[in-house]
Amino acid sequence: MEMTPMVTFDDVARAHERIRGHAHRTPVLTSATVDALTGARVFFKPENLQRMGAFKFRGAYNALSQLSPEEKRRGVVAFSSGNHAQAVALAGKLLQVAAVIVMPEDAPRVKLEATRGYGAEVVTYGKEESREDVAKKLSREKGLALIPPYDHPHIVAGQGTAAKELIEDAGPLDLLLVPCGGGGLLSGCALAAKHLNPGCRVIGVEPAAGDDATRSFRTKTLQSVKDPDTIADGARTPSLGKVTYPLVMRYVDDMLTVTDAELLKSMFFLWERMKIVVEPTGALAACALFEKKLDAKGKRVGVVLSGGNVDVKAISALR
């Protein structure tokens, strides 16, 4: 699959046609309690209600559906801590493409089980190994197409469909808050938002322990972080990628960080008050709003809840 340096709104629009009828068009949720708490009019895009429980299905289905017949016959390999793993496994099952997924030994049990449940072969790796290297080796040895978790134009275009739907369904926004790990969701949503709603300020939100994208944004130089210690396992990415970094720099207006303690508080608030199960990474954008990291008073605010694949028993013990 050929890499291109830039993704356009046309790519997002075409991705949206591709995934139509396969991905859920998740609803827009509102909460009078949240509006009162923030002084804003808040519109949530709950991608925890997406197929396999996260936005990742959008990009994975868009990428796999564009493989050549020969690539589909040979199969794919992906590496992921969980949600991209499940997304590629499910997209592979639907498109009849065999999938091998490289996952960390300590990946959340719920994510490992779900990935195997969708029919994928799981290959685990230890802390001392590089997941990219393990995946590249399998790709070479078995002739499998490599589907990276965020740093690919087709992945980015697929993820951008979440913001396209939100703005189409909720109307113009003053602010759009999006979780950030490797930047696939953030860059895709930012370019979609700027096309449909040029006046919208797009803000990415990271865990404080994994603030590589925030540092990259501030310094205008690509920064990295090694295996950050954060409850937001979906945002433990080492850095933005070759595709996502330029898009973030071009379309994103600001970056914010939240602590793990703040994140857990916001996640449980979403569970208890809005009755939706969101994983820690999925609550990043909402947390920045709830903790008043930005001035949202009187504004129309879009918030992407990126996923809901959480080990409920394990996370409840952290209260």
* Secondary structure category: alpha/beta
Kindly report the CATH topology of the largest domain: Rossmann fold
Terminal-residue CA separation: 44 Å
The tally of beta strands, per DSSP, is 9
Query: How would you characterize the largest beta sheet?
Result: 5 strands, parallel
| Cα shape | globular
Gross CATH architecture of the largest domain = 3-Layer(aba) Sandwich
Describe this entry's structure for a reader:
With 319 residues, the protein is of the alpha/beta class. The protein folds into 2 domains: 9-53 and 153-316, Rossmann fold; 57-146, Rossmann fold, CATH 3.40.50. 44% of the residues lie in helices and 14% in strands. It contains 14 helices and 9 strands. It has helices at 9-19, 32-38, 56-64, 69-74, 83-95, 109-117, 131-142, 153-170, 184-196, 212-219, 244-251, 260-274, 284-290, 312-316; strands at residues 41-46, 76-79, 99-104, 121-125, 145-146, 175-179, 201-207, 254-258, 300-305. The strands form 2 sheets. It has a 5-stranded parallel sheet with strand order 1-9-6-7-8, sandwiched between helices. It has a 4-stranded parallel sheet with strand order 4-3-2-5, with helices on both faces. Helix 9 (184-196) links the parallel strand 6 and strand 7 (201-207). Helix 3 crosses helix 5 (83-95). The radius of gyration is 18 Å and the shape is globular. Residues 1-5 have low confidence and may be disordered.
